[in-house]
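FORM 12-B: Structure-to-Sequence Request
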């Protein structure tokens, strides 16, 4: 029953994220837009490129979907409302997100198309940049909670949320999460108007529908991770715990769309340089400051 409830919450979140993304892009709120788009894709013929690597081509959308669901499986929506409450849940989230790269490389290589391949390799450049900015802030979060269990991390924020306790870690994780979900200005793998869709360029019909559903679920997963690690998870007055988690998750996703839509696209080389020259030193500083606070403040 818990698994069904969490999966239903993820699908509802993906639907809401699709509505928010279209609103941020066009300025129009169309609640029925995702349904019409999904129906159009499902009803359209699903073309296959002339000389694809069929295994990679077919498996890439499914693997991206699985990676997003696996990451969300260890993130709690409320006390007891989590699919698997792993002892190493925080690390499992990072491990699941690593398969996003595998899925996009497969989506780029499988169709045997130039635009798709460029998009896949661009994402590899992004991963080299943001990967440490995912795991290092999680390390600081686990230091404060003295645990890798995601429910314990939420409980550790009973007094002060981590966004207040370690704001630098929140900013770094937020930027890395946007790059992980290849949201603007880090949308080089798809690059609308430049790569004709990039890793999506050779997909159509049902395959494209699965790929876009997976991307929406990935946005939900990174927003949910931000909520659990930095925004107190389900904590809040008056409303049920699951409602607070849902509202915070949607607020994080909306903030990502609003911020990304107002910034110019960042080249992977520049992003990599900024992450390694500035981001990683700041992440080390964040770990050092959190360590001092943990020792100094009971």
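FORM 12-B RESPONSE
SEQUENCE OUT:
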């Amino acid at each position: 029953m818990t698994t069904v409830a969490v999966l239903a919450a993820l699908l509802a979140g993906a639907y809401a994220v699709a509505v928010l993304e279209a609103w941020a892009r066009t300025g129009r709120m169309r609640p029925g837009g995702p349904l019409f788009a999904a129906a159009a894709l499902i009803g359209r013929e699903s073309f296959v490129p002339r000389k694809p690597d069929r295994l990679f081509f077919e498996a890439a959308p499914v693997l991206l979907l699985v990676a997003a669901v696996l990451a969300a499986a260890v993130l709690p929506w409320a006390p007891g409302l989590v699919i698997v409450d792993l002892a190493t849940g925080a690390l499992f989230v990072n491990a699941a997100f690593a398969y996003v790269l595998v899925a996009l490389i497969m989506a780029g290589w499988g169709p045997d198309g130039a635009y798709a391949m460029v998009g896949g390799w661009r994402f590899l450049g992004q991963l080299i940049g943001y990967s440490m900015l995912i795991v290092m802030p999680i390390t600081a979060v686990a230091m404060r909670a003295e645990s890798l269990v995601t429910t314990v991390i939420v409980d550790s924020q009973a007094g002060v949320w981590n966004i207040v306790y370690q704001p630098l870690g929140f900013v770094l994780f937020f930027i890395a999460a946007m790059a992980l979900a290849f949201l603007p200005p880090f949308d080089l793998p798809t690059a609308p108007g430049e790569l004709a869709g990039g890793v999506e360029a050779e997909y159509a019909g049902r395959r494209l529908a699965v790929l876009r559903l997976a991307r929406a679920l990935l946005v939900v997963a990174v927003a949910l991770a931000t909520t659990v690690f930095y925004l107190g998870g389900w904590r809040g007055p008056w409303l049920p715990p699951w409602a607070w988690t849902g509202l915070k998750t949607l607020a994080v996703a909306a903030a990502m769309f609003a911020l990304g839509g107002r910034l110019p696209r960042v080249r992977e080389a520049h992003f990599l340089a900024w992450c390694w020259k500035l981001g990683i030193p700041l992440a080390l500083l964040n770990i050092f400051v959190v360590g001092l606070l943990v020792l100094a403040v009971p």
